[in-house]
Design a protein that fits this description.
The structure is a homodimer of 316-residue chains. Chain A is α/β, with parallel strands linked by helices and 316 residues long. Chain A has two domains: 1-136 and 277-316, Isopropylmalate Dehydrogenase; 140-267, Isopropylmalate Dehydrogenase, CATH 3.40.718.10. Helices cover 41% and strands 16% of the residues of chain A. The first copy, chain A, has helices at 18-26, 29-32, 43-53, 81-100, 113-118, 126-134, 162-165, 168-184, 210-224, 235-238, 241-245, 255-266, 301-315; strands at residues 6-10, 36-41, 62-65, 105-108, 140-144, 149-152, 191-195, 228-233, 249-252, 271-275, 281-284. In chain A, strands 3-2-1-4-11-10-5-6-9-7-8 form an eleven-stranded mixed β-sheet, sandwiched between helices. Chains A and B meet through helix 10 and helix 12 of A and helix 10 and helix 12 of B.
Chain lengths: 316, 316
């Protein structure tokens, strides 16, 4: 038991489904076998959620208790500045502890962008927050599930901004992060499939030059380094079953190119992993779900998968 | 038998798999019940392909015989100017006949872009050719299968060019074409799901303004006209099973947004339909497959589905 890695789970926005997911995690017999958990949250909020749900989990939980949040003022399902501020404090403290080595990994329950904004927090979400706290620069988002692993070259930017961000260096970097992540997942020689940006992967330049100018050179560079990379493949056929079988991890050029197939195959069970950080961080693949907060009806499948993946990586 | 619609099938590039698919169509007992077929091709090429395949279908076929192609000079699997020129002549003649009312519909086997180019044909493919021949301006590509129907606002353009082409008028137009197509497919009140362009459908403008400026107004306009339209939905969750069940046809903003999910669900069985033409035109969802031409190993599932759909629409 003492040898099991200690994982910090941050409560996320107190008015969302984060607190109840945290309570369900610490009560999970599946997780009890692979890790120890510490909630970064607020005891008052957790107690109120327990009462609302009628579950008695808190007694056994290890909680870092955010001292500044007035738990009684939290209204479930509402955007509140006090909630955005509390959520940020929990992440900040968990990152501090994992950076010191007190935690083996962190799993973050969802934040609410508008609540962060109302609290005057300048980061739009976890990824930017974690990059700033840890000083990491070369990061990328990976979505992981049994069916599919996808790493994104660009993430939360408009389609108009995508082509300019698909540089040779960035594509090469994400290929490297994808490779390292899959080695960590236990794949000795990960087979990496890189998608083109344009329809038909540009059709020899007829529908865009990015493939020839940036993606092909990045793939060649990665191959020269000994990585097993194919592509750029036309994205519309890259995710058909025969290609999936020959692929351990995909590198997609933009958000929906990777997440359309991912969510078709792994809706509600996917895990979001930030690659390139000096710490292990995973999160569930959903938002705060304000509409069903504190009701006990939210699915915990994605959060459970997120903790399991963090525990696996933490054990090495 | 005489009441069955007469459908023209163009041979496509003679050096590709088009000729053998045409021969298989005229021999299909399934099609014999729903339509009559006339091949627009070249008898010499069809005879050579029959001999290569060892099938005796030609005797029973109705063939418009392109007089200008030297059949003996055709080398299967090779880009040739004579092939590009012959392929264009077949399409031109079939369009002429369908426009006169001699045919009820046309189904086009695949062209090869480089062969067209070598022949000095300026059209890159069927769609542009058909639009020019018929004078149609407001057309769009629909991919059809039992699993999914998707109409595309933009098709063969680079991702960089997509945002500028997603105009309110064009989105509204494609919604209308999608509605009309599904009515023709037998759906009384088609449920139309429109995808956003940007990740999270722009997240209220944080990742792009196109949703607010063009897509939302187009959807509202279509709704005001009485159409059953939802969206713009974030594309990454638009294709999950629960949304698919509530959707008869999707409107996607760009090629891979629609074709990634389509090919995941209907690889090799999809049909490409050009909407907005004054004639009925379908085609299989694959290319000339030069690597396996004249060998009899090409799948005819997509071509068969294309003829079936054309016959259904032709019967009204």
């Amino acid at each position: 038991m003492r040898d099991l890695p200690l994982i910090g789970i941050t409560m996320g926005d107190p008015a969302g489904i984060g607190p109840e997911l945290c309570l369900r995690m610490v009560a999970s017999p599946v997780l009890g076998k692979v890790c120890r958990l510490r909630i970064y949250g607020n005891k008052g909020v957790l107690a109120r959620v327990e009462e609302a749900l009628g579950v008695p989990n808190l007694a056994c939980a290890d909680v870092w208790d955010d001292p500044a949040l007035d738990a009684d003022a939290v209204v479930p399902g509402r955007v509140q500045a006090i909630c955005g501020a509390a959520a940020e404090r929990c992440v900040a403290r968990a990152v501090e502890d994992v950076s010191k080595g007190d935690l083996a990994a962190i799993v973050t329950a969802p934040l609410h962008k508008a609540a962060l904004h109302a609290a005057g927090v300048s980061y739009p979400g976890h990824t930017e927050m974690l990059a700033a706290y840890t000083g990491a620069r070369e990061i990328c988002m990976m979505m992981a599930s049994e069916a599919l692993h996808v790493c994104l070259v660009t993430t939360h930017v408009s389609v108009a901004d995508v082509p300019g961000l698909v540089t040779r260096a960035r594509v090469r970097q994400v290929i490297g992060l994808a490779h390292a992540a899959m080695v960590r997942q236990g794949v000795k020689v990960p087979r990496i499939t890189v998608c083109g940006l344009n329809p038909h992967a540009g059709e020899d330049g007829a529908f865009g030059q990015e493939e020839q100018r940036t993606i092909v050179p990045a793939v060649q560079e990665a191959r020269s380094s000994g990585l097993d990379v194919q592509g750029p493949l036309p994205a519309d056929t890259a995710f058909i079953p025969s290609v999936r079988e020959a692929t351990d991890v995909y590198v997609a050029m933009y958000h929906d190119q990777g997440l359309i197939p991912f969510k078709m195959l792994a809706f509600e069970t996917g895990v979001n992993v930030t690659l390139g950080l000096p710490i292990i961080r995973t999160s569930p693949d959903h938002g705060t779900a304000f509409d069903i907060a504190w009701r006990g009806v939210a699915s915990d499948r994605s959060m459970l998968a997120a903790v399991q993946l963090a525990a696996r990586w933490a054990r090495g």
